[in-house]
Amino acid sequence: MRPLTEEETRVMFEKIAKYIGENLQLLVDRPDGTYCFRLHNDRVYYVSEMILKLAANISGDKLVSLGTCFGKFTKTHKFRLHVTALDYLAPYAKYKVWIKPGAEQSFLYGNHVLKSGLGRITENTSQYQGVVVYSMADVPLGFGVAAKSTQDCRKVDPMAIVVFHQADIGEYVRHEETLT
């Protein structure tokens, strides 16, 4: 378990900033304590400093996980967000997409969101902007990347993809043996 290097921190913060923008500062400086990011086995964990001090007594090879896994670094040093970060991204998301009840199951099976399943979208969402996907009942379902801007979504055909799927809460069931 070690702190992230400057390069790793920059890459990770750029990825998170696609979804929550300048609200990134709110993740680190929270009113209930100070939180930090730590790297362990190419995975980035979001953990309170109090728990981090307690975990210092455990050797690195015996430590399986600590805090919440935000994502992992690939072999090419790119950062990939995990669905476990959804609970921390959703409250601070700048751009949101709500999908209709009929499209929820399709999204939770790992498919992209089509225009026919789009309920609402935040105004001024640009193309390729990170978005958090919600059900119409405001339950966060996952996150993805907007394939079309808000203005383009109004005039595309119903079978056009409007949000590229990246992660959803259905991954807990589909990949439960590999999710740590």
UniProtKB/TrEMBL annotation:
The gene is LOC100771208. Belongs to the NIP7 family. Monomer. Interacts with pre-ribosome complex. May bind to RNA. Interacts with NOL8. Interacts with FTSJ3. Interacts with DDX24. Interacts with pre-ribosome complex. Keywords: Nucleus, Ribosome biogenesis, RNA-binding. One of its GO terms (biological process) is ribosome assembly. It is found in: Nucleus, Nucleolus. GO terms for molecular function: RNA binding. This is 60S ribosome subunit biogenesis protein NIP7 homolog. Residues 95-170 form the PUA domain. One of its GO terms (cellular component) is nucleolus. The lineage of its organism: Eukaryota, Metazoa, Chordata, Craniata, Vertebrata. Coiled coil: none annotated. Pfam families: pre-PUA_NIP7 (PF17833), UPF0113 (PF03657). Required for proper 34S pre-rRNA processing and 60S ribosome subunit assembly.
